[in-house]
Design goal:
By secondary structure, this protein is α+β, with helices and mostly antiparallel strands. The protein has a single domain (8-123), classed as Dynein light chain 2a, cytoplasmic (Beta-Lactamase, 2-Layer Sandwich), CATH 3.30.450.30. The chain is built from four helices and five strands. The radius of gyration is 14 Å and the shape is globular. InterPro entries: DUF7522 (IPR055944).
Amino acid sequence: MSDDELSDPLRDQLLSAARTAIGDELRSLTYFTEDAVEQIYLRGDLERSADLVGFAERERMGFHSKSLYRGTQLDDYQFTIRVFERGYLTRVIAGDHGVWATTDEMRIDRFEELASALTTVLEDL
């Protein structure tokens, strides 16, 4: 497996972690690096119309942001939540790997569970 390709077991681990943390509120799950993007999951009631490359370009800014926040009074960056009219996007980054999950609306503590679960899998890469 190259640094940018996901193995089937890793795909399964990420999806399992997300589904365990937030269940049916998960809309989509996408893995990304500086050079690659791969959608792992898309809920059946959604269309495959998202511009994954465009989303990945935006979310890759997190690699830079993560290092910028290091050593500040805020302490280490953990995850990002983006709020939209019809749901949320949660991005987590560990090293040179990232994942974003889109979700339906849900309580804030569930985002923390989601981010923690996905970070645990990414840190093992």
